[in-house]
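Fold it.
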Amino acid sequence: MAYMNIVKPSVKEIVNKTPGKKMEFCGRVCYKSDSKINDDSYVKFLRNIAKSGHTSVLEHERVCFEVSSGVNLASFAKSMKFFSVSDVAGKKFVSANVRAWLENVGSESAFYPHLKSLYPFLFEDECSSDGSSVKIVDENYLSLVFADERKSIEYAHSARTFQITCSRACTHQLVRHRAFSFSQQSQRYCNFSGDKFGHSIDFIMPVFDDVKEFSAEEKSKIEARFKESLERIESDYFDLVDNLKLRAEDARAILPNAAASVIVMTGRPCDWEGFFALRCDAHAQREIRDVAFAIRDLLSK
């Protein structure tokens, strides 16, 4: 028997200072395999991710460097989609997510030995540079600079990650913001008939509170019709999977935009600022507007 759940959108920040662990968490969201996480599971997980070529997961952690005047940043400046280059108080900085570093620098690069020290399971070649012309910009580095300088560096080069539970309709809107990196729960690999999901499907009910043209009675009728439709869809999904033995990757075709999904979203403060300008606006749809305000509140703390 199916047990449909109506849930509300929610947001929480994902923070883990150990290099690699946040990327593992984000990757496991896709398969709902977070139960497999242990102290060192990220090493094998990320090594396999890199070897498989599905390296988008490696975009959820970012590494920043201060570079000396002898380092040529012209090639990075031309790849602004992947690298950020800035000048703060006369010092030059460059940053990128781990995927970009892995795919764009070789063992001869001054950056390589530092990246290898952080992610030895990804950067496995022998270094041919001592890396002395660049410095990692980490918490220790930032603790020694003036507050205004730190804010400027973090604005262009740090990254914040949020786990968002919302409707598939909302995730389709979120992924339009291409400055960000995403990992999303897969309806192909997640079988809602299994124990992980308690043989139930979560749905997000649209919010009608701010729709003035409907009376309370009309809103009640709309919600009742929504629930009736969602219950029928959930029942059909489980009939296809449990009784007719259709694979989840095929049965997912009947799931609606109201189906709840978990997505992780990583961006720099400058990226989030642009996101809020669009999605906190009164013209944005209610669900994504609520998500945007929730993230903005967390970022302001």
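The two ends are 43 Å apart (CA to CA).
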